[in-house]
Amino acid sequence: MMSRLLFFFVFLYTVTTLISTTSGACQTSCGSIQINYPFGIDKGCGSPQFQGMLNCSSTDLYFITPSGGYKVRSIDYDENTMVVFDPLMSTCSTLQPHHDFKLSDIQNAIIRPSYDTVFALFNCSSDSPVQNRYKSLCFEAAGHSCDELYSSCTSFGIFNTTSGNNTASLGNSTVSATPYCCFTSYDTVRVMSMNILDCSHYTTVIDDGKMRGVTPVDWSYGVELSYSVPEIGCDRCRKSGGTCGFDAETQIFLCQCSNNTSPRDCGGVSDKGGCNSRSTNYAMLLLGMLVSFICAIL
């Protein structure tokens, strides 16, 4: 009899624990950055299209892409923009080995660099496509030139030396010649890799209309991503006090409330007239099992 009672209390504890944890809350922040719809870190949170794109490591939030993780600096939910920074990207003060910036197909469709993001390609060879057939892909960046970048940035200054391919003959004298550079858009680096572009380094700058007259040292380095928000009734869910999420198995929208989930909001019922709650149904099933167990041992 004692063994039956002991097993009963263990079973009761397990059931109680499962019931209390069936409706887990979504993580709402990572460090100082708020996590709201359409983004989510936990399974079933946010929009299914954005699932797995964010990762919270300690106090830092990262945007995950095929080319690596990029630290998230800010998310503007009013403007639908996210600013990320590549720690392996060259800047005016730091020179890094080149690598490609790649997004997945779904990311290219719903969250991609905005038109305010300028990709600056440095130390390009004379055979680079953007200096020949596709030269039209390069544009003027708020009045700034290659010479200015190579002369004012300590990191890119090494390319401005009088040696090798960086020299040009003028009569009987040799003068310093800066290597080619190109200010271009994301579409260029999306189609052509850095190896195809034949440029050794790149950086990204956010041109929000404040680049003109500002030295490269004070530029806003990073990538501004512009995203689209699926309209599936999230506003109604939020206004009722819920958190927008989805069923991890069916990918169907769910409004996550404090003690249940609903297909619409936290104050409503399902279209069939009853409360549509996976956690509630699960709890009822476990309670039924508990009652059956009690009847069996008595």
UniProtKB/TrEMBL annotation:
Location of the Wall-associated receptor kinase C-terminal domain: 222-259
Principal location: membrane
Keyword Metal-binding: no
PROSITE patterns: PROKAR_LIPOPROTEIN
EC number in record: 2.7.11.1
Keywords in alphabetical order: Glycoprotein, Membrane, Signal, Transmembrane, Transmembrane helix
Catalysed conversion reaction: L-threonyl-[protein] + ATP = O-phospho-L-threonyl-[protein] + ADP + H(+); L-seryl-[protein] + ATP = O-phospho-L-seryl-[protein] + ADP + H(+)
Wall-associated receptor kinase galacturonan-binding domain: residues covered: 26-85
GO CC, alphabetical: membrane
GO MF entry, a single one: polysaccharide binding
Membrane disposition: Single-pass type I membrane protein
Annotated signal peptide: 1-17
Compartment(s) where it occurs, according to its Swiss-Prot or TrEMBL record: Membrane
Name of the protein: non-specific serine/threonine protein kinase
